[in-house]
């Protein structure tokens, strides 16, 4: 993997982490400010948060693998 490709992957990881953090923040706001009245929002919000975290985990694993391969 070229240095440019590695840098692009690092940016992708950072973006995915930001998105996952945004969803986690929305979940936190729901818990802190709107429950129990907004309980119906839990499934959709939880699913979106889960998907964002999985997306981050996938791209982060790719980055770790790329760094490991580069170090070898």
Could you walk me through the main structural features you see in this protein, from its secondary elements to its overall organization?
- The protein is built from two helices and no strands.
- The chain has 72 residues and is an all-alpha fold.
- The two termini are 12 Å apart.
- The radius of gyration is 16 Å and the shape is elongated.
- The protein has one domain (12-71): Orthogonal Bundle (Helix Hairpins).
- Helices cover 86% and strands 0% of the residues.
- Helix 1 packs antiparallel against helix 2 (42-71).
- It has helices at residues 3-34, 42-71.
The main β sheet shows up as: none
* CATH C-level name: Mainly Alpha
Strand proportion: under 5%
Number of helices: 2
Low-confidence stretches: none
Radius of gyration: 16 Å
Distance between the termini: 12 Å
Order of helices and strands: HH
| Content-based structural category | mainly alpha
How does the overall form come out from the CA principal axes? elongated
- The counted number of beta strands is 0
Helix percent band = over 70%
What is the CATH-assigned architecture? Orthogonal Bundle
